[in-house]
Design a protein that fits this description.
single chain, mainly alpha, 3 helices, rod-shaped, LTO1_adapter, Essential_protein_Yae1_N, Yae1_N domain-containing protein
């Protein structure tokens, strides 16, 4: 308490109650701040692990598409006029190579990923190959 009594002075009971109320508020604020800091630390760890694993999934998917594209490149004869499939293949390869490898808040990664998926499916239709991508955790033997 902040009201210390000295011999011969009277303590107002209202001041004592005010001090008790302020102690409770101060302790409540300190506890809140400690809890907020602990939650932020744990939240950062959880967010890091989520982002890491989600990024690995996206990387594996784009790597699969890139491998299919590279394998299909050898099938084109290199004529004067490229076919629709060849043009789309080149475009898709370039977009995968330029896909952001870091977190940029100005780039909508989900939108870009969805566009890449759609282009990949269209490429597979044009080249008459299977568009099936099996996620690594969905494989069964």
């Amino acid at each position: 308490m902040t009201n210390e009594t000295t011999p011969g002075t009277e303590v107002d009971i209202n001041d004592v109650f005010d001090d008790l109320l302020l102690v409770e508020e101060r302790l409540s604020e300190e506890s809140y701040q400690r809890g907020l800091e602990a939650g932020a630390k744990q939240g950062n760890v959880d967010a890091y692990h989520f982002g890491y694993h989600r990024g690995a999934e996206i990387g594996a998917e784009l790597g699969y598409y890139y491998g299919v594209i590279c394998a299909q490149e050898g099938g084109f004869e290199g004529g004067e006029t490229p076919s629709k499939g060849e043009l789309l293949l080149r475009e898709l390869k370039k977009e995968i190579e330029e896909f952001p490898t870091f977190n940029d808040l100005e780039v909508d990664l989900l939108e870009r990923l969805l566009k890449l998926r759609n282009k990949y499916k269209k490429l597979c239709v044009l080249l008459k190959i299977s568009a099936k991508y099996t996620k690594p955790n969905e494989l069964s033997f």
